[in-house]
Amino acid sequence: MFFLNFILKCKIVLIRIYFSRLKRFKAGFYFQKGKKIKYVDAASFAFIYEELFYKQIYKFECSTSTPYIIDAGANIGLSIIYFKTLYPNAEIVAFEPDDKVFETLEYNIKGFDFSNVTLVKKALWNKETFLEFMSEGADGGRIAVDGDDKKIIKVPAQSLRSYLNKKVDFLKIDIEGAECVVLEDCADLLHHVDKIFVEFHSFINHSQNLQKILSILHSAGFRYNIQHIGVFSPNPFINIYNYSGMDNQLNIFAFKEN
Q1: What's the number of domains the chain is made of?
Q2: How far apart are CA 47 and CA 185, in angstroms?
Q3: Mind giving me the DSSP string for 35-85?
Q4: 3 within a domain of the structure (yes/no)
Q5: Closest to 37 in 3D by CA, of 73, 85, 91, 95
Q6: Assign residue 25 a region: left if phi > 0, alpha if psi is -120 to 50, beta otherwise?
Q7: CATH number, position 216
Q8: To 10 degrees, the CA torsion angle through 179, 173, 104, 52?
Q9: Binning pLDDT at 50, 70 and 90, where does residue 8 land?
Q10: Is 47 part of a structural domain of the chain?
Q11: 108 vs 32, which has greater pLDDT?
Q12: 70 phi and psi angles, rounded to 5 deg
């Protein structure tokens, strides 16, 4: 096991070095186990690949070999590939609103010939509507906020509620700032969910809603574990680092207490 972990770590380091030399926001391909994975941005691909296949942040156990998984913010599909590696017979519903990214997502899922995967080209919100969306070109596309004036497109959006009418073994929410709106909208249905991953985003000059998210999870019977990821300020009393309008980013892992 130690040797296998060492080999994987070396592979991750090589991937990191190789992709760091490539131009950002330019499409390319990566081969894994004889399959061709298309990416839209080298830097985000390397980061997500390490998070999923080396650190395995989405790894979970459940009592069935056919878990129901909702992937909100599927991006190019690396998370789906990981979930299907973990549970080949899983039922997965995945949401991705960005036109360019969705095309790549569709390409990757077809290339792996997965069954029981439904791709939905919509954003998640608290109602059926159209929203302005900042199409960043990588993994940072999001519902537009004040100050976003470039790469703005209109995308359809819907509520998550209709997908929570049965047991959900794993709910992944990585939707770049819309997480609080979505969780507030379906808070009364979270009793159907066993495990939740939420990537929390805090935006400069906007109210922080971490306390709302944690309160929703607590009220639904979840215990949580929080880890820093991405946007990080080593000396926040001196200087707040920001990236793409964000000043903080956290991974929240929520699970029901026994």
Answers
A1: 1
A2: 30
A3: EEEEES-HHHHHHHHIIIIIS-TT----S-SS-EEEEES-TTSHHHHHHHH
A4: no
A5: 85
A6: left
A7: 3.40.50.150
A8: 140
A9: confident
A10: yes
A11: 108
A12: -110, 125
